[in-house]
Amino acid sequence: xxxxxxxxxxxxxxxxxxxxxxxxxxxxxxxxxxxxxxxxxxxxxxxxxxxxxxxxxxxxxxxxxxxxxxxxxxxxxxxxxxxxxxxxxxxxxxxxxxxxxxxxxxxxxxxxxxxxxxxxxxxxxxxxxxxxxxxxxxxxxxxxxxxxxxxxxxxxxxxxxxxxxxxxxxxxxxxxxxxxxxxxxxxxxxxxxxxxxxxxxxxxxxxxxxxxxxxxxxxxxxxxxxxxxxxxxxxxxxxxxxxxxxxxxxxxxxxxxxxxxxxxxxxxxxxxxxxxxxxxxxxxxxxxxxxxxxxxxxxxxxxxxxxxxxxxxxxxxxxxxxxxxxxxxxxxxxxxxxxxxxxxxxxxxxxxxxxxxxxxxxxxxxxxxxxxxxxxxxxxxxxxxxxxxxxxxxxxxxxxxxxxxxxxxxxxxxxxxxxxxxxxxxxxxxxxxxxxxxxxxxxxxxxxxxxxxxxxxxxx
Length: 460
Ligand SMILES: Cc1cc2nc3c(=O)[nH]c(=O)nc-3n(C[C@H](O)[C@H](O)[C@H](O)COP(=O)(O)OP(=O)(O)OC[C@H]3O[C@@H](n4cnc5c(N)ncnc54)[C@H](O)[C@@H]3O)c2cc1C
Known about the structure:
Number of strands: 19
Structural class: alpha+beta
Bound molecules: flavin-adenine dinucleotide
Domain FAD dependent oxidoreductase: 34-388
Protein name: FAD-dependent oxidoreductase
Largest sheet: 9 strands, mixed
Radius of gyration: 21 Å
Pfam family, one: DAO
InterPro entries: FAD-dep_OxRdtase, FAD/NAD-bd_sf
Number of helices: 13
Helix content: 25-40%
Distance between the termini: 25 Å
Strand content: 15-25%
């Protein structure tokens, strides 16, 4: 470990000042429920809130294997994206006929999240101030310039920034251009999780932490969710388990657990802030396939994450994988290269988290066990806002409701499965190398072009 990261706390900066760890008893004995939810991240919590808002008499139980906020929802970058299609360009390539509808639904979703936080007094530092995508190479510059017309075609206003304009905003020689969008924004992800927890429990949801669901069976119209020391007998089950080993076998082919790594700096002084500009305080991301995302926190630290997206052989998911010296070191080097004026600012936190990637970069929804179980997994690194929408889709499916969202191919169509091991790991590595090469050269090689034809890819 290099010295610079030696003193960094091995945990998300978002957990400072909050009580971490389980706050509830584990499940013991048999509990009856109308709806049992597996996973207490955003997806599970939104599902509980929406289900109880629809019908306050419903008995809703959530099983969480660890504690609420321990998963991606408590450790992400907090970028609030309207997109339900992993970005406009991907939506245009995959679902051109539905894109305007999807954009509208995604916009409404973020508006409804903002209204919900207001209504329930959740202070999650939500700031709908958009973001800037930054070009580091000449080909990224050209791609951003050309993207303006695409956005305009779909009624989205974005502004292209040339070299002088982007550097006037963000003082770094690393950037050659940018694309400023005023859509979406930033949130404190853990504060959002805790706010959702409070509302869900207030509406009557019963959460059991440290209660991993280990299996689900169906008998005489009742679904039984087993845990080490208890069971839930439920009329319906909703799987909101992200990248963790899915209880439903079919999901294993669709979900690839990918680790993403993050650093946070100490709070910047007024002079340090002055030296980097960034006065609009928006979220920033690079334009490449291997992109950094960075933002300021409430107390003016810089959170700096992304770039590496690491898949471990055999779909491994484990707390040990949340720290990776090589990825953290690389992030630290890239940070210093991007902002040499911040050479003295220490990194105070480093962490990682797991992302549920699908080949189509958007979640998979569906039902099993005669329609009594529904799943919403595969948010592929863009679930801060879209999980709310996804929870709604899963509830529609459980209710057997045909709604606008359940009619969309982009929502209920399936993804091409990932190959099983031992092919999965080499396939991901080959794709990663091809993506890195495209970042360097600006040319999409034959492997990526072939994958494009099948609407298949790898992303974090
Ligand atoms: C480092 C990082 C940065 C990210 N940055 C962004 C970003 O800036 N913007 C964005 O939009 N998205 C981002 N994401 C993605 C986003 O965080 C996720 O899409 C979102 O949090 C998914 O919510 P979830 O509820 O589906 O999953 P989680 O929050 O992971 O919740 C799932 C829960 O299920 C539990 N669980 C799993 N299996 C079981 C079981 N068998 N029994 C009981 N419990 C179980 C887990 O313990 C976990 O708590 C990022 C993700 C990571 C890891």
